[in-house]
Hints:
The structure holds two protein chains of two kinds.
Chain A: H1 25-50, H2 64-71, E1 79-81, H3 87-92, H4 97-105, H5 137-152, E2 158-163, H6 170-182, E3 186-192, E4 195-196, E5 199-200, E6 221-225, H7 229-244, E7 250-255, H8 274-281, H9 285-295, H10 301-323, H11 343-359
Parallel strand pairs in A: 1-2, 2-3, 3-7, 6-7
Antiparallel strand pairs in A: 4-5
Chain B: E1 3-4, H1 6-20, E2 24-28, H2 44-48, E3 53-55, H3 60-73, E4 76-80, H4 91-98, H5 101-104, E5 114-119, H6 134-138, E6 144-146, H7 151-162, E7 168-173, E8 182-183, E9 197-200, E10 205-209, H8 213-226, E11 231-235, E12 238-240, H9 244-254, E13 257-260, H10 269-281, E14 290-292, H11 304-307, H12 311-323
Parallel strand pairs in B: 2-3, 2-4, 4-5, 5-7, 6-7, 10-11, 10-13, 13-14
Antiparallel strand pairs in B: 1-8, 6-12, 9-11
Amino acid sequence: MAQATELLTVIDPKGKGKAPAGLDTDDFKAMYRAMLFTRLFDQRGMNLQRQGRIGFFVPSTGQEASQIGAAYAMGQEDVLFPSYRTHSIALLKGISLKRMYDQMWGNDGDAVKGRQMPNHFTFKDINWVSISSPIGTQISQAAGAARAAQIKGDKLAVWAWFGDGGTSSNDFHAGLNFAGVWKSPCIFMCENNHWAISVPQEMQTASHSFAAKAVAYGMPGMRVDGNDVFAVYEASRQARERALNGDGPTLIENLTFRMGPHSSSDDPKRYQPPELFESWQKKDPIERFQQWLAAEGIWTEAWEDKLRTEIMGEIAEAVEAAESTPQPEIETIFTDVYAEMPTLLKDQLEGLKEQIRRDGDIEDTGGAFPL
Amino acid sequence: MPQMTMLEALNDAYHIAMEKDADVVTLGEDIGKKGGVFGTTAGLYDKFGDMRVMDTPLSECGIIGTAVGMALYGLKPVAEIQFLDFIYPGFDQIVSEMAKMRYRSGGEWTCPMVVRSPSGGGIRGGHYHSQSSEAYFAHTPGLRVVMPSTPGDAKGLLLASIFCDDPVIFLEPKALYRHGKADVEEGYYEVSLDEARIAREGNDVTLVSWGAMVPTCEQAADLAQEKGIGVELIDLRSVLPWDAATVIESVKKTGRLVVAQEAPRTCGFASEVSATVAEKAVEYLEAPIGRVSGFDTPFPYTLEHVYKPDKKRVLNAVEYVAGWE
């Protein structure tokens, strides 16, 4: 197994390399489609925000291989504690665009009922746990869920996703420490995209890598070329095998790069050296995989055009449907706080309804993010 | 009916819950072989083993964070925080995660779990083993915050909390752990998390309290009775959501209200009770509302008995409010 000091790579920068065992042409095509889908979804998301049609967006541009490679190694029963930048996994797992856009519009069709900012999805049907904004909280939770799987005797892996910034959180330490002690089937996926908003990775740690931290928790740490979809798949597959064999948790550091802003509220030009961005642009994970696929005779321009047309069509249709769905009912402010609404909240809801009956609809004073 | 201390009653509830449902697990520091620093989890480790009774690394953030993950997975974890004063590294997991999971996932993901912790003073523990922090949690929508004051309630409320679909902060008044024995029903029963208990009836002053202050209030009520003041004592049992209706009904009868808490005064839960009564029943009030509380200071070590409101301080407030014309 790759250790913290090596960088696991399968496809070299020229697009040459041997595909991992167990994947065939259909898999390669599905992986590429999901990566391209994510890129286009992100471009559209940023545009929708710029047009003022959605309030906020978090793109994952540059991290498509880092996510799709791992997602492809997941089992259907596996439990996922995502971060707010991992929506490519939901796209790969077949979550409909309508559901994703409903969440971003916070409309009446939104599973979260308009209670969270865009990108904070919940998809219970694919074991995708609701996303938080505070950094790292999902890491200790994932360790606990993995312990629960051990207690119940279930054979599966629990995946925690976070970035380089997340490794500085209390929950990173707690989660890896508990999982190490419990030897629980947890895979800690650190996407080192070099940036925690504007703070560079070297300001998060003096450790020579994030993967190296695994040593202190008694688990293997793998350092993986995160722009190489096959390398990520291979590392993830090995980590999952360990988890299911009862060998305990693994920390994987996917070395990648956030090729866009932190969110629609951020401008990396204010802090990012342009030459750094350009050097990573040359390592674009989609282009790299495309080269490999082309060399194998799988990728053609015609196929690319067909894919793009198909995806843009799907996006346009879902955007239109989500945008024309009305806002959630005001009751949704009060429901789901408790299993059953307590008197306290019933009284407050009644008070609000009374105000609206008396004064009419409450004016939307148009709060906007960023401030 | 057996007689038990509050500790014995809590331990009994634990055994019953874990026998009843294999999904009930417990985790915390020193709760395994040692059985907890107070003995609340005594015997559980031997009976249910180390997969269900887990001594954890020393991290409150980790205890509550992993318990949240266990609850999301489908278990019913009971996390022990050794002293409430140590809970703050886990505060983020409580207020941002456990409390909001149902809401932020539109009901898809829930945290049916309990965080239990010894609360309040009375053991000469200085300010890191003595604080009453219920108000921090009562300010967090999505939580239930429960504080028993009798052995029988402690058992029934803990069982109700463990099998409740909402996350519960269960605060155990450590001063009452071995305060004395009382009747405790055998077997499984629940005490409602939504209903206050009228600890004694009276017509002159409504005295509202919860947790460790309830026995002190009973003593004050006895003293008041000797002076001809009939106190109606209400034990809230839960401070979130809380049973305002029972308090308001009582105030409509007595026209006078005193609220007693051990916690510091400013923004304590007594303030919420006072404000609610002032809003909803001011026309029934015949006197200013009285508040008895700790001081707006940290909790002292040597002078703990001076800091904690005693029966005389409660009595003074009752007399003042009862005597207002």
